[in-house]
Amino acid sequence: MSNQFPPITEEDDSNFDHDEDHHDNGLPFEVVESTMEDGKKVRHKGVYLLPNLMTTIALFSAFYSIIASTQGRFELAAIAIFIALFFDGLDGRIARMTNTQSAFGAEYDSLSDMMAFGLAPALLSYHWALNEMGKVGWMLAFIYVACSALRLARFNVQIGSVDKRYFIGLPSPTAASLVAASIWLCVDRNFDTAFAQIPIAAIVLFAGLLMVTNFKYSSFKEIDFHGRVPFFAVLIIVLSFALVFTDPPLWLSLIIFGYAFGNPASRLFTQFFKKKPKS
């Protein structure tokens, strides 16, 4: 990958704007450390350990998911994608909390996302069900991978130009979670691949296409996690976690399915029943 970041000089160093909206996980700038050697200011480039360690764990989880898929350990492969999702969300938050943003971290995170939310779920779906569909199966898996790459590329070029309260198109982590949760549910319920083949193929196709649509999805960034909430709200959160852990594949599938298809279904329903103006 070519280096698109120009060398940092004394003049442009003061123009840095540490705005978290410059990248999805808040890692927009190169790491530069200045030290004094022989009376001269020497600038050293490097990478921050902690946020990139979280990204590395996410990348490892994605790699493990791919290996598990090839070995027929589909439940572990699906769970590994969720682990990658957790650490992918953690790296950016750690970077913002510790003020350890870097351009290297931004690029590294994007490559990790492509592995975790593009390749891993596509190969999971292919090895579990789509491979029995021949050329149609691997083409569906490729469409998902291509849409994931397009989604990540579009997000990177739209940073700072869109409303941060919304994602344009289904976020790639959500699309990957939708595929992983669906297959996890099928494996947990011992569904035959012949029975679940068509539904999984449809989920993979629509998850991919939703990533490149213009449907708006809430980013939940408008929620104030530092503010006060009623005690009842905390109780609801606790009960929700307890409910999910009673049957993770079922409840995760329902929640993610509702988030992914709720907005498009609502938009299509509104357009279909939209009243025509009277002539």
Polypeptide structure, described:
With 279 residues, the protein is mainly alpha-helical. It has one domain (49-272): CDP-alcohol phosphotransferase transmembrane (TM) domain (Four Helix Bundle (Hemerythrin (Met), subunit A)). It contains 9 helices and 4 strands. It has helices at 10-13, 49-70, 74-98, 103-128, 135-158, 172-188, 193-211, 231-246, 248-272; strands at 31-37, 40-46, 166-168, 216-218. The strands form 2 sheets. The protein has a two-stranded antiparallel sheet with strand order 1-2. Strands 3-4 form a two-stranded antiparallel sheet. A hairpin with a 2-residue loop joins strand 1 (31-37) and strand 2 (40-46). Helix 4 packs antiparallel against helix 5 and helix 8 (231-246) packs across helix 9 (248-272). The longest helix is centred in the middle third of the chain and has 26 residues, at 103-128.
Classified by CATH, the class is Mainly Alpha
What's the quaternary structure here? single chain
Stated plainly, the CATH topology is called Four Helix Bundle (Hemerythrin (Met), subunit A)
Mean pLDDT: 81
Order of strands in the sheet with the most strands? 1-2
What is the C-alpha radius of gyration, as a whole number of Å?
21 Å
Low-pLDDT stretches: 1-29
Tally the beta strands: 4
* CATH homology-level superfamily: CDP-alcohol phosphotransferase transmembrane (TM) domain
Structural class: mainly alpha
Summed up, the domain count is 1
- CATH architecture classification name: Up-down Bundle
The shape is: globular
Please report the number of helical segments.
Answer: 9
**Helicity range:** 55-70%
Distance between the termini: 58 Å
SSE run: HEEHHHHEHHEHH
Largest sheet, in brief, is:
2 strands, antiparallel
